[in-house]
Design brief:
With 258 residues, this protein is an alpha/beta fold. The chain has two domains: 8-127, Roll (Ubiquitin-like (UB roll)); 130-257, Fumarate Reductase Iron-sulfur Protein, Chain B, domain 2 (Orthogonal Bundle). It has nine helices and eight strands. The protein has helices at 59-69, 130-138, 147-150, 159-163, 182-187, 193-204, 212-219, 233-237, 244-257; strands at 13-18, 27-34, 44-51, 89-92, 95-98, 111-114, 121-123, 126-127. The strands form two sheets. The chain has a six-stranded mixed sheet, with helices on one face. Strands 7-8 form a two-stranded antiparallel sheet. A hairpin with a 2-residue loop joins strand 7 (121-123) and strand 8 (126-127).
Length: 258
């Protein structure tokens, strides 16, 4: 069996235990990854006993309750709480998801919450998405049309062309798919990853855009696109039910046939 030796300061240790003080009979144990860059300490797992009787149904509700009532130092991203912004993406019960959509009632036993995998951790559950956003910028995710057309009030699009964007425009760039992809784990600096490639395909097939060839040239690289090995983790982990793997396959087909 292979053995890996991790640096001492990277090994996760047992953290604090916060016992319930309400006397509730409906308690859920929640184990949360904690790491503070301002402290010279190893990452740790803190355990919280949470009164589920007085808590909303989502994992984000549990995090809010812990932050508001038990430990205000807990750090995580949140915003809309309706699965629109993608801020609260994290790994819950071993699966990348949005904590505002994931129901804790679907999890039997203790709840384990970690930041998105294989990214640098800024603090606690906050992962560094800087590289992902740079890659997203590199595909130029905006409509490109001739200057004369840009001065018109509208750019008409047929219904059948608009329908091609369904399953693509809904992507909220939460990074759940990319951080579930082994190819992105090992080649994250060069491989664009499922989220960015899905967005690239969204603009390439937009009938209003006039730079399809140029856009295909941007991603026509053995590392940017062809590191995908169709493992399907991306599609399985998308909290919006989208299919990045299909978009990537469509890009490969377009490059092979154009």
């Amino acid at each position: 069996m292979a053995q890996f030796n991790l640096p001492k300061n990277s090994k996760i240790i047992k953290g604090n235990y916060f016992k319930d003080l309400t006397g509730s009979k409906n308690i859920k144990k929640v184990n949360i990854y904690r790491w503070d860059p301002d402290k010279n300490e190893n990452p740790k797992i803190d355990t919280f006993e949470v009164d589920i009787e007085k808590c909303g149904s989502k994992v984000l509700d549990i995090l809010n309750k812990i932050k508001n009532e038990i430990d205000s130092s807990l750090t995580y991203r949140r915003s809309c709480a309706h699965g629109v912004c993608g801020s609260c993406a994290m790994n819950v019960d071993g699966v990348n998801t949005l904590s505002c959509l994931k129901s804790h009632k679907d999890i039997s036993g203790e709840i384990n919450i970690y930041p998105l995998p294989h990214l640098k951790v800024i603090k606690d559950l906050v992962a560094d998405l800087s590289s992902l956003y740079r890659q997203y910028e590199s595909i130029e995710p905006w409509l490109k049309i001739k200057e004369k057309k840009s001065q018109e009030n509208e750019i008409n699009q047929l219904k059948e062309d608009r329908k091609k964007l369904d399953g693509l425009y809904e992507c909220i760039m939460c990074a759940c798919c990319s951080t579930a992809c082994p190819s992105y784990w090992w080649n994250g600096e060069k491989y664009l990853g499922p989220a960015v490639l899905l967005q690239a395909y969204r603009w390439i097939i937009d009938s209003r855009d006039e730079e399809r060839k140029e856009r295909l040239n941007i991603i026509a690289d053995k590392l940017k696109l062809y590191r995908c090995h169709t493992i399907m983790n991306c599609t399985n982990s998308c909290p919006k039910g989208l299919n990045p793997a299909k978009a990537i396959s469509s890009l490969k087909k377009m490059l092979a046939t154009n």
